[in-house]
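fold-stage: in
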Amino acid sequence: VSGTQKMLSRVIGEDIALRTALARAVRPIRADVTQIEQVLMNLVVNARDAMPRGGSITLETANVTLDEAYSRAHLEVKPGDYVMLAVTDTGMGMDPETQRRIFEPFFTTKPQGQGTGLGLATVYGIVKQMNGSIFVYSEPGQGATFKIYFPVALDVAIDGTSEAVKPPAAQPTETVLLVEDDELVRRSAQRILVGGGYRVIVATTPEEALAIARAGDRPFDLLFTDVVMPGMSGSELWEAVRQVRDVRVLFMSGYTDDSIVRHGILEGKVPFLTKPFTKQSLLDKVRDVLGAGG
């Protein structure tokens, strides 16, 4: 990734800032360097085209562990250790229908003659060839994040270990209001929280969550909400909920935490969990925010 920055900067032009948030010691993967460069080039060009009036692109790498809960929600992904490569832009974003077709060959939202629709299809093919997975997180007007997960090369000596599951602490007594418009993420988070001993109230929209808070007949201790949702952002929801209830908050998003702050969606230093989260990372974060040790 570092070696492509000069080339990518020339491609995107002067009105787009190229930023990086690279992990210091990512685990090794087995991949062809030229193909990785092709993936980066196609994703960055796609991001550039989504920002005709300029903006920023962030390249990020990180070591991640995807657990069985995530695998159940994304059947094509096996539990295990991965290296994540993310490309985030501050462009126009995509609606759900576009996201469903984004990797189809010859599908493009560009005017005729301005795109072949093969760039993202090529990325998808390369990623699958390397036994990886690729997902897109986006909302109209809020940019997009493409996350790629490459399996760690297990036959190469590496430092570090997989995420260890910690022994359970005392049984929780708190209630969580879960707000998420994506059904798979919502069901996965609910299953993890209930399995961790928490009572869970589920809302599929910010408006529904706000109505629950205002009604007052279903008290909760933590607002666990997606950041980018149609109609109202997670931060706007929290501000509204705080007017009627004194509760703590934990935000989540498929956008990377670095890009969330750069997008201006959240101030810094706010409890935040990046999707995909593992069972242990979610339970640890909830315990940390509630400060109850369980």
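fold-stage: in (second)
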Amino acid sequence: MTLGRGRWPMAAAALLVAACVHERPGPDVIVITVDTLRADRLGYMGYAGASTPNIDSLAASGTAFTQAITTMPRTTPAVASLMTGLWPHHHGSREVGEPMDDHPTMAQLFSGRGYATLAVSANRVAGPEQGLNTGFDRFVTPGQMRRRYGHRLVRGFDSKPDGIGLAEAVTEQAVRQLRTVGAGESVFLWVLYFDPHLPYWTRQSRPEAAPRCWDLYSRWKGGHAEVGAIMADLDGVASAALPDCSKLYDEEIAATDAAIGRLLTALDELGRLDDAIIVFTADHGENLGEGGLFFEHGDNVHDAAVRIPLIFSGPRIEAKRERTSGTSIVDVAPTILSLANVPTNEHPSMDGVDLSGLLDGTAEPTPGRVLFAESATPMWEGAVRH
């Protein structure tokens, strides 16, 4: 179609207006969280037994905080801190499954700025019932994944060579959501992988490869008393199985890393990787005998369960940089908002601090900062914790 000379200024103006209307509100933000992931079981943290090339690549492309901690080694309070930048006693969730109070979340803030806000959570205690879907346009829950994949979804002690693993399903659902977003829209995506949580079991796992851990699993089905005996290592049942269970735990992490690799590849294919702010972390770690607690977390504040990985990668972030200053999961939200150029007068009150100056090399850690973590209620109370 050829425009007449006299009509060109009007057409150009219309195109300029259209371009302004469709200008993206900011960089894409991708937050990747892995449930029950110890920081010391990753390759970039120096663990020789790791098979985590994709997570290690993220660390190499950005800045890794090697002394980061969670606020509580339970999923719901920790994720609430991630989303709000608040300590548990401020956001209100003090135990697994307990809903947080009504506080602004990152998803709400990005939604208000015109972002498409998407989430996939593989843990039922990090979802709508706890208020953690607040601000998300679309939120995929474990129940929705079970209904979608039916008998093909590998969970618990299933053995389905032709099935789909939980981490694979999380990535597939995240990519499906991303494909619904137009190229001119910005995305805030949060994914929560669940696989390293007990029982440690991947689609490729075989009982004969870790027989002592599988013997332990058979006892695990005996109810709360048996679970408590295992966690407390009565008669040495857990410590005897630890080498085998530790091997399976590493396999779960490797399977999750592979799924994260597929997510990063999809982001690249969709043109959303190069300019994105990517944050990788965990809600908490896992006690593997530390503090006398086996295959569980939350009932003490041992480093094994409190210390978490924390990586920031993106255009304004120094690559191949390690920071040893103490940081907390409450710092993630204010840092992301700063990196995404959200004006400070739009930030709600947060307990966390903005780490962006440490990421681009323009600032140094504030000396004397105090961080803390809470333990949860004893494992003997109620059901098995998540």
